[in-house]
Predict the structure of Methionine--tRNA ligase.
Amino acid sequence: MNKFYITTPIYYVNGKPSIGHTYTTVAADALARFHRLKKEDVYFVTGTDENSQKNIQAMEATGESDPEVYLARMAAEWKQTWRDLDISIDDFIRTSEPRHLAGVERFWNAVKETGDIYEGEYEGLYCVGCEAFKATSDLVEDRCPLHPNKELETLKEKNYFFRLTKYREELLKLYEAGNDFVMPESRRHEIRNYVADHLSDISISREKKSVGIGIPVPGDDSQVIYVWFDALINYLTAIGYGTDETKFEHLWPADLHLVGKEIIKFHCALWPAMLMSAAKNDPLLREENGSAKLPKQVFAHGFFTIDGQKISKSLGNAIDPRALVPTYGFDAIRYYLLREIPFGEDGDFSHTRLQERYTADLANTLGNLLNRAVAMSRKYFDGKVPDPFVTQAALPEVSGEWSGKEGLDALAVAVGKAYEHTRVDHALELIWSGADRAHGAGLSQANKYIEDTQPFKLVKENPEAVGRILYALLEACRWYAWLLHPVMPQASKQIFFQIGLNEEKELSERWDEALVWGKLKAGTPLPEPRPLFPRLNEEST
Ligand SMILES: [Zn+2]
């Protein structure tokens, strides 16, 4: 069985999950669900990055004083948010857990054994917002461009360094086109330029007394490990590195790390270099030929603005995704985030657009199609799925005929490819408009088919033809429920229910076995239809 190991970054717990975190996590969830439909052995991990000064500063601002209590409370809140948004995680890792500490120690020792850790003195400008040293070339008006309100600190201390520059050539080889290690391509160019021209060794520890939190450096209690060096290792420790070798060997390397574009230097340069180094002294991390087992791909998505403005605490425009759920339901939020923004590019979150998409795409197109197909079948065919084979009655001539079976075959192939290539936005666009715009079987074309054939008029003169039309539409709804499940699991379940199917039974099949025309059985009883996406109440928006 194929395995599919997918991760989000682990998040700092200095605040609540925002719409940006939600975007990454929902995208990862959609991909995890798609691979589960293919009956792959999926493992989907997210978690919290707890060994950071940022968390401590946030804790102090709340008046709390016990980091353990604060971290546990915040981690629970993050975990609950993902539950509330129907995120299907297999594991949630906290970097304060013993299983993480065990793996970090093993990893540090392997890198040290390779000879890639040395002592040095570091002096530099440090941004606590980024938890990173900043080069003068990174600054805008002497400040961190991501945290213009934070004073940069000048740090000078004894640190351990990692020989990152030793891996320049190997990294450049990794970025060669065709490897698709960094996606999308624009980010690959960016990271290649950075590694070719600006790579330097980095400090991977801090004096314990100056940061107050962190994992102790093995063998030197006066130092703690730099938070990014420890955080990246979560991708290993979450699947048993240092604690469960069998599990680890089954799941590593990761198939996909989804990240925001602001952290690609860490994921696309530091992380593979760390793995190349540790692999030399840890057989768990290398292939039989001796090369390091590296993640297959890092996919970086863009930044969000809200109604055209940068998200910032001072503007107070951050959106708590859970606050949107009572109005729209979580499926609509998931749909909007994944549909509206081409994955990999920057995008804008707008309440107006969310409402427009809800009404046009979900209520009027998807909801209406299901409702009309079910309501007419109940009315004309005794509350059941009509039998398309009862007669060979000719279908009425319609312009731009909807191509049912062939169109859906093409659609499922195209949608599968889009999900496979991390282009969830593209998959959704296809489901609405069809793989072939002229004769496709997308949702819009299915609706048009009803308008063109007018079953409600035709039923008097040619009920057999209407039976075939309605069967085709109900069967198409079954396909749409499959194709949409990764993005809208609740709506998908509802669609199955309304066409008389049981979701659990339906999804126990494999994607390619289920997506075969004609599996919906004639005579299946249809329950009373109800709106899949009820109209938005003006007051509630
Ligand atoms: Zn910063």
Q: What stands out?
A: The chain has two domains: 3-302, 352-540. The chain is about 45% helix and 15% strand.
